[in-house]
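[step 3/7] fold_predict: job queued, chain A
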Amino acid sequence: MTLSNLPQEIIDRFIDEFFNSIEDLQNLSLVSRSWVHRARSHLFRFITLGPQDLKEIRSYYVEVKASENQLGWPGYHRLSLAEQELLRSSLAQDPQPHKSFLSSIADNLPDVRGLRLECLLRVGGVRRISPEDYFRKWLGFGGDKYAKGCHVMRDLSADEDFSVKQKDRWDAVDLPWGHHAGIHALPFRNLRYIHIQWSVFSWTPPSLSLGGDGFLVCTNSNQWPGYQLAMVLKSNADTLDHVSIDEYPGFRVKQYNSTSNTDDLLNILAQNAPHLRSLSLGGLLSVFHPHLHVTRPSGSSPFLEQEPAIYPSGEEVPHAHPDEGCSGDVHRSVNSQQMSLERFFLRGFDSEATLLIEDVLLNGGVSPIKSIQYLALSAMPEDYNYMFLFSRVFQSLTHLTLDLDESTLHLELKLSFFPHLECIQLMIPSTYRTIPNLYNMVRSLSDNVFHLDGSMPSVHTVRRLHIALGPGVHSGIAEGYMTDSSIDKFLLNLVQHRPSGLSKSVGWTRVEMVTVNLPNTTLEKAFPMTFETGCLTFGETDEWWDQSTNLRRV
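[step 4/7] structure written:
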């Protein structure tokens, strides 16, 4: 039997075996026309879209190609791996606008389950430019001080008009969602996962969007980002179960001085994504890493504030406003709908914003807080009140992830506080207080003897405790975090079985396995007593909040 005579069901089943290998799927799609659709259904299960400057990509490709031709000449160096990869890239040889790309996979659009919208503009190789830098340094938007030294001005010939050239260059930027509509023009209708950087909305300013491409838009420019977001959510409402939003500028106290200017993000999600199960929110604060050689002011918080997203005019892209005047009434600040969130990941907001988010979640009726089973709080403010939130979710919580930062330095957390806890992760950031923080946290968790109140079992087992190295923490440096022999003693206490002589009226919490993403040879040296029990081993971080990593298995 030849390949062309094979039943389609057998072909499909064979291709499905390679669902997680992009290279194999690409090769299989070339075998026969009957193999293409099934291979593409896996290849395009998760895609990333972002703006491109095709002129810059072509120019950069020409430059790299010229360098390749000059190899061996004095003064020229070998191409980097990134440049060698670029020369083999179909993007550089034949840049294809996103609209053409989306048209080329029209038959596979229903198979796309995950979409990441990237705000950084690609201008060649691995180089990415923020919207703000591109508007000002490349295009010269924002006034004379930016126009004089921008790329458009430097490339301007004597007989060309700057404004015309600037507009032509702006119109030539490839935006997959279009210049005159917004991200809601994207044709996806079966998404399960959406990741959006708020700066994406910088590329569709209201002044360029009103009335374009036949799409119905809001008349209030301040409502524009919220409208786009609501329409994307609504288009995928029946299938969408995970949303991730980064660089969100909202939840500021000054917004709440007026009831007409409050934040409506969580209500937008509740109204337009009724089946949402997982939500990841990131603000404008990023974790401070000393290894980046950034000067830290005395007494400052462990965060670096990012610049908010801006439009070409220089105006800040707003947060999601309550929208009472938007045509179609796609989102209104009412609580007729609720999210039944099971997973919630919060990071990068200051203490005031965190309290506002807590208030909406705990008291606003947007989501029944008691439904949350997975909770990750990463790099929270120093004065963050964990126990207030834990007191509302302790009955439902099964997975908990915490950064060992300043906010957890004195947190007395007891495993026995969470009756259904299965897994707890302690993320080690690169901060100067990590060593005592790890000691304090493990000591606190190991204090596992407690008096029963009649509602909890006498023996409580936590399946896993994971100690993870956060971004920027080199494994060699991390060994220094494990030098305190007392940590070994406390870990040993956690993995031990209930002592035979312990009174029946006293409970006992035990951890089945402790994992750390360090080699076993390092763990045996750092924690010899616990390692000897067989309950300590190497383990990968369980980043359950990043649903995109699991999309190919869906």
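[step 5/7] annotate
The chain has a mean pLDDT of 77.
The radius of gyration is 27 Å.
exit 0
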